[in-house]
Design brief:
49% helix, single chain
């Protein structure tokens, strides 16, 4: 067996989602933050769902970060994680709206504060 073949997973990614390619219940963006709800893991979770729950035990991660740790494409991670959200195991926090991310007044205040700090002895 070649090294390339040895490093590939034995289970194809679509098997982890039961052949589904899209999350039907919720729309998740790449930067959506996910965090775990509750302590005990429910029964009947797939290996990737269990792995996701363990990853999120330490704290919130974005969808993209979680997909990377799960070694799944983002599109398939959405399916796995949407099922956990629908089951009440995870909560998803949508990203802040663009307008809230770039408040010109706040940026001006930060810049003024930095200038004052630089000029003070």
């Amino acid at each position: 067996m070649t090294p390339e073949r040895a490093s590939r997973p034995l289970v194809r990614p679509y098997v982890e989602t039961g052949g589904r390619a899209r999350a039907e219940r919720c729309a998740l963006e790449r930067i959506t933050l996910l965090h775990r709800v509750g302590g005990e893991l429910p029964r009947g979770l797939s290996d990737k769902q269990r792995e996701a729950m363990e990853l999120l035990r330490a704290g919130a991660l974005s969808l993209v970060e979680t997909a990377s740790y799960l070694r799944l494409p983002v599109s398939l991670s959405k399916v796995v994680l949407a099922d956990l959200i629908a089951a009440g195991c995870l909560k998803a926090r949508p990203p802040a709206p663009i307008a809230a991310q770039h408040d010109p007044e706040m940026l001006r205040k930060v810049l003024d504060g930095l200038r004052r700090a630089k000029s003070s002895p």
